[in-house]
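Structure in, sequence out. Go:
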């Protein structure tokens, strides 16, 4: 669900590049990045994660990191 919402939001934001990390094949990467709950979004030191990331929460996160 978060992936679908993120894809929809990114259609209006060509300035944002997305890197998807598959945790089953890269568990050390998730650990290194401090990701403990999935799905998760991270930009610099800012991070959002949760079992349910709504489109509204994802949009607020993108706006927050855009203004940082």
């Amino acid at each position: 669900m978060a992936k679908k919402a993120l894809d929809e939001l990114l259609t209006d934001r060509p300035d944002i590049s997305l890197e998807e990390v598959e945790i089953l094949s890269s568990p050390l990467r998730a650990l290194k990045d401090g990701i403990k709950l999935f799905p998760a979004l991270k930009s610099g030191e800012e991070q959002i994660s949760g079992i349910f990331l709504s489109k509204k929460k994802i949009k607020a996160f993108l706006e927050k990191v855009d203004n940082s």
